[in-house]
From TrEMBL:
One term of GO molecular function: metal ion binding
PANTHER family: BETA-CITRYLGLUTAMATE SYNTHASE B-RELATED, RIBOSOMAL PROTEIN S6 MODIFICATION PROTEIN
InterPro entries: ATP-grasp, ATP-grasp_RimK-type, ATP_grasp_subdomain_1, CPAse_ATP-bd
Cellular component per GO, a single term: cytoplasm
Species the sequence originates in: Streptomyces paromomycinus
Domain (ATP-grasp) ranges: 96-272
The protein, known as: Alpha-aminoadipate--LysW ligase LysX
Pfam families cross-referenced by the UniProt entry: RimK
Keyword check for Nucleotide-binding: yes
Keywords: ATP-binding, Ligase, Nucleotide-binding
SUPFAM superfamilies per UniProt: Glutathione synthetase ATP-binding domain-like
A GO biological process held by the record: SOS response
Amino acid sequence: MKLCFLVEEHYRHDGMPNEVIRQLQSWGHQVDVLRPGGSLLRMTEAVRAGSHDAWVLKTVSGGPGLTLLEAAASAGLTTVNDARSIRRVRDKALAAAIGRSRGLPVPPTYAAARPELLAELPASEYPLVVKPADGSSGRAVHLVASPDRMAAMAPELAREGLLIAQPYVANSGIDLKVYCVDGEFYATERCSPLHPELGVRERRVPLPAEVAAIAGQVGAVYGLDLYGVDVLLGPDGPVVVDVNDFPSFRQVPDAVARVARAVLGLAGGGRAPVPAPVHVPATAGESA
């Protein structure tokens, strides 16, 4: 197969997707790499029907790679994931609205173009988690305790563009990250960006059946094939706080080969019907 990977400068030296690219090449596939953040692109020529079997995106949320992927999709080319699905989750305000309307356990979410608009929220909604609508990798995620603190942070938040705010869900300070690769689910736990003082090392853990079902529902709601879901275990049950279209797949066993095989499958046949979640349990050593 002939594949095109769109890789931003931010991921230029990351194992994901570079190791996947090398794996595909070792299997005899041709992989071209475009770096939309560091190249002058002739958009009218970059996307040509039949030039590649599939296009794969690994970029930051606000980067130009998604525009190029959408151009490929508009030309009728296969993209991994579907370009429209990526757009749905890259905009966290849009993702929250879609998810909550489709029955996912997503917190109530407010959006504001300017931080001073968040002053309209009553004190009863605090503490609030505030972050950029186009954020990624835990960037600029803030736990804001009170309206006074929100006012004090306004100059800092003003640099982040569209903001979302969600009432804080009480939890242990440990996030559950669920990765979906080719219909199989893998769970890891890691320290929340809001609670770095806990110093929890990321590790694979058993995946609760309720969370596995939610992770499968996420794929169906947004139309994703390769993705990750951030889940908090709150007092009223699991809560979805973020969805990523091409995550790191850290702690997934044999992740490089699994992701490479999934890319080939999607490139060859397009999107498969949404499978029932298959939870791959952690071994005793991995969950210890």
